[in-house]
């Protein structure tokens, strides 16, 4: 299997005043070019930690993370990262936020920004400022900014978690559109089972304390998918059943750190 991202025997421990906290244990994952992987798991199971390590934002760990065969040692523009909060520059309008450090007076930048504005469906809002945008629109600007850098992989950490259900559904459509047009490799963290199944070629189900991969479910359904279809619901139930097994039995005590 050709892989773009390879994670081997990844272990991560945080040293805290209360002692070491193992956040990730023996994570192994191979991602194919153009694949859409979603990661789902209970709060605190290490999803954000894993994504940050892939992004090169956290390099203190054991094990190896290789992007196109190169060891990930620092953040770089070939690893796009989308946070739950959009982190736009409030003083720049939409097109300038997308261009960021690149100059719009360069014809190839201008052309690509215009194309991305169309892809993320923000035509007419080029000159708008972040304060004038809804949460979903702001996230689309953040995604366009990441895509302008042609990342090898786009990492999204609960990108739609703060949005209402309707906007979330719309954003899922936009993201699938982007993926189908660009074939950017996507790794998206979510706590929404529907979202995980709807978007993914494979759903990675994680377990907590310490964070491990419990199971990987391949979603063998063609696009466009229908959330109400029987086959979709079967996948949904399959992922949900793993989740229900993860949950601690009643009275097991409070494991919160
Ligand atoms: P998730 O994103 O799945 O909710 P995180 O990756 O944020 O989980 O956290 C995984 C575990 O690591 C949790 O137990 C959390 O408390 C711990 N953790 C995360 N970041 C730090 C940190 N900077 N220092 C100490 N512990 C941390
Ligand atoms: Mg998180």
Automatic annotation (TrEMBL):
Superkingdom classification of source: Bacteria
Domain called ABC transporter: residue spans: 5-235
Signal sequence annotation: none
Keyword Secreted tagged: no
Pfam families: ABC_tran (PF00005)
Gene3D superfamilies reported for this sequence: P-loop containing nucleotide triphosphate hydrolases (3.40.50.300)
Protein name as annotated: ABC transporter ATP-binding protein
Entry keyword Magnesium: no
PROSITE patterns: ABC_TRANSPORTER_1, ABC_TRANSPORTER_2
Gene Ontology terms for molecular function: ATP binding; ATP hydrolysis activity
Organism lineage: Bacteria, Bacillati, Bacillota, Bacilli, Bacillales
Keywords: ATP-binding, Nucleotide-binding, Transport
InterPro entries: AAA+_ATPase (IPR003593), ABC_transporter-like_ATP-bd (IPR003439), ABC_transporter-like_CS (IPR017871), ABC_transporter_ATP-bind (IPR050166), P-loop_NTPase (IPR027417)
